[in-house]
């Protein structure tokens, strides 16, 4: 099983266990490990220089040199609304999603401009964008940005009137 | 029938219809993770809590044990929680369902359902529906369990 999936399942289950045994959890190494996993596996661990704001992306999309846009979260949410011109590649917190991402980029030059986004959850809680970002960097891509979505895609993109499309 | 006005126009502000308070909750028939159809209006007469969520959504996972407790506590008084999973398929949902010992039905959501409820473009989103099928409240993002419990108790009161 992919390491990211193991981490993902670990965090799901650990939260459940701690909800049952909070007083014990606070003092256990298990809890400390859990905090460390949370800290390094979520979007908040993506360095600022690898992020792009919605406003910044909108400006770029108005220009000639548009990046490839990959939504790496929920397909059901993508079908309702997605950034105009973006492609859905699968939830990057799953191995299937990461495989689809790797397959999509395998023939691209490593300098290709790519923007990843999700918008499922508040930024610090998104489980999808960091695995996708990590995967592209591991493949040697040097021009990857992650769209910083503070709250969710609806609030931070759609409601602001930025370009969207719907459908598969 | 609630008209979820969901206009998408490029480059201009768009209105998203919201499943707002005191309107009838949009009816749907969706398959559960076991493949059986579930129709929302079959629960008319109960207080329903409709939770849009996904297995990989951290705040959603935090809410799940609380919903399990609420269902256990108020189920025999007329509460019915229904999870609407926005996962891409039922497999991870079935695993999660067992791991978290969920005790309420979970259906697989669709884009059409999300649009009917004003656009589910962030998770979790929960709607509390009264016994007449009207939406009492909408909660976007992780919400403290006590908020849900207070509203549920009010709705269940005779």
Q: What oligomerization state is this entry in? A: heterodimer
The low-confidence runs of chain A, each spanning 5 or more residues with pLDDT under 50, are 1-6
Q: Percent of residues of chain B in helical segments? A: 25-40%
Compute the number of structural domains of chain B.
1
CATH architecture of the largest domain in chain A: 3-Layer(aba) Sandwich
Residue-averaged pLDDT of chain B: 88
CATH superfamily of chain B: Glutaredoxin
Major sheet strand order of chain A: 1-6-5-2-4
CATH topology of the largest domain in chain A: Oxidized Rhodanese, domain 1
The strand count of chain B comes to 7
Q: How many structural domains can be distinguished in the coordinates of chain A?
A: 2
Q: Can you tell me the residue ranges of chain B where pLDDT is under 50 for at least 5 consecutive residues?
A: 1-15
Structure report:
The complex is a heterodimer of chains A (168) and B (158). Chain A is α/β, with parallel strands linked by helices. Chain A has helices at residues 3-20, 22-25, 29-41, 54-61, 75-80, 95-105, 129-138, 153-156, and strands at 51-52, 68-71, 82-83, 87-88, 114-117, 144-147, 164-165. In chain A, strands 1-6-5-2-4 form a five-stranded parallel β-sheet. In chain A, helix 1 (3-20) crosses helix 3 and helix 6 crosses helix 7. Chain B is of the alpha/beta class and 158 residues long. Chain B has a single domain (29-156), classed as 3-Layer(aba) Sandwich (Glutaredoxin), CATH 3.40.30.10. Chain B has four helices and seven strands. Chain B has helices spanning 58-74, 91-99, 111-116, 145-156; strands at residues 29-31, 37-39, 47-53, 79-85, 106-108, 125-129, 135-140. In chain B, helix 1 (58-74) packs parallel to helix 4. In chain B, 40% of the residues are buried. Residues 1-15 of chain B have low confidence and may be disordered.
């Amino acid at each position: 099983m992919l390491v990211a999936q193991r981490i993902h399942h670990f965090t799901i289950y650990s939260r459940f266990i701690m909800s049952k045994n909070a007083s014990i959890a606070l003092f256990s190494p298990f809890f400390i490990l859990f905090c460390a996993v949370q800290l390094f596996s979520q979007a908040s661990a993506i360095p600022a220089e690898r992020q792009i704001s919605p406003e910044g992306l909108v400006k770029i999309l108005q220009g000639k040199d548009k990046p490839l846009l990959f939504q790496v979260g929920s397909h059901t949410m993508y079908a309702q609304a997605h950034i105009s011109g973006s492609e859905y590649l699968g939830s990057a917190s799953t191995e299937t999603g990461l495989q689809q991402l790797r397959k999509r980029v395998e023939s691209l030059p490593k300098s290709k401009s790519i923007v990843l986004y999700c918008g499922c959850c508040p930024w610090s809680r998104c489980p999808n964008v960091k695995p996708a970002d990590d995967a592209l960097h591991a493949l040697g891509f040097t021009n990857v940005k992650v769209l910083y979505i503070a709250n969710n895609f609806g609030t931070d993109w759609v409601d602001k009137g930025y370009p969207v499309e719907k459908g598969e | 029938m609630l008209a979820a006005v969901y206009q998408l126009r490029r480059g201009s502000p768009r209105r998203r219809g919201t499943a707002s308070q005191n309107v009838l909750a949009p009816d749907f028939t969706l398959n559960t993770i076991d493949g059986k159809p579930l129709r929302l209006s079959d629960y008319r007469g109960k207080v329903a809590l409709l939770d849009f969520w996904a297995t990989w959504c951290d705040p959603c996972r935090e809410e799940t044990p609380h919903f399990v407790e609420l269902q256990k506590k108020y189920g025999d008084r007329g509460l019915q929680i229904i999870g609407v999973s926005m996962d891409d398929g039922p497999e991870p949902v079935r695993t999660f369902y067992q791991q978290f010992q969920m005790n309420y039905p979970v259906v697989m959501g669709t884009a059409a359902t999300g649009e009917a409820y004003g656009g589910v473009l962030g998770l979790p989103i929960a709607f509390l529906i009264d016994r007449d099928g009207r939406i009492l409240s909408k909660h976007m993002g992780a919400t403290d369990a006590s908020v849900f419990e207070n509203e549920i108790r009010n709705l269940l009161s005779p």
